[in-house]
Amino acid sequence: MIKSYRDLVVWQKAMDLVTEVYRVSKKFPKDELFGLTGQMRRAAVAVPSNIAEGYGKSSRKEYIYFLSNARGSLLELETQMLIASNLSYLKESEVDDLLSLVSQVGRIIHGLLSSLKTPKSQ
Questions:
Q1: Given this model, what pLDDT does residue 2 score?
Q2: Selecting from 3.10.20.310, 1.10.1040.10, 3.20.70.20, 1.20.1440.60, what CATH number does the domain 5-24+32-117 have?
Q3: Is 118 left (phi over 0), alpha (psi -120 to 50) or beta?
Q4: Max CA separation in the chain (angstroms)
Q5: Using one digit for the tens of pLDDT, what is the confidence trace for 105-114?
Q6: Is the pTM of this model over 0.85?
Q7: Are the CB atoms for 43 and 73 separated by under 8 Å?
Q8: In CA terms, which of 26, 37, 72, 122 is 20 to 30 Å from 91?
């Protein structure tokens, strides 16, 4: 039984993603600290934050809104990871691992959004 947003698998996976983004971005060039490093970290943090905030809202419509924001931040992060890869800031294996996590989180968010958009049975 889900008692908290922390019990949601999607939130847990998104937290794993944040941890990995922080880990790999530690070695980015120092001149990227306020550029790509900061943007990637903010986008990553926004994913579980929006999931948690949406869970705490009082209406289904608000929950959908925040899950949609989480999905947008996830796609923003994916784009930034590809940019970091193009700039050779990330190893191919790191990109593959991160993209796998992004994909997992994205699939779960999509499923959750679909279930929330389906009218409740009476």
A1: 82
A2: 1.20.1440.60
A3: beta
A4: 57
A5: 999 999 999 9
A6: yes
A7: yes
A8: 72
Helix (H), strand (E), coil (C) string for the chain: CCCCHHHCHHHHHHHHHHHHHHHHHCCCCHHHCCCHHHHHHHHHHHHHHHHHHHHCCCCHHHHHHHHHHHHHHHHHHHHHHHHHHHCCCCCHHHHHHHHHHHHHHHHHHHHHHHHHHCCCCC
Task: Name the phi and psi angles at 58, rounded to 5.
Answer: -90, -10
What gap in Å lies between CA 30 and CA 17, rounded to an integer? 22
- Give the mean model confidence (pLDDT) for residues 77-98: 96
Domain locations in the chain as residue ranges = 5-24+32-117
Residue 9 near residue 107, CB atoms below 8 Å: no
Q: Is the pLDDT of residue 26 over 70?
A: yes
- Contact partners, residue 37, CB within 8 Å, separation at least 6: 25, 28
Asked whether 63 and 55 are in contact (CB, 8 A), the reply is: yes
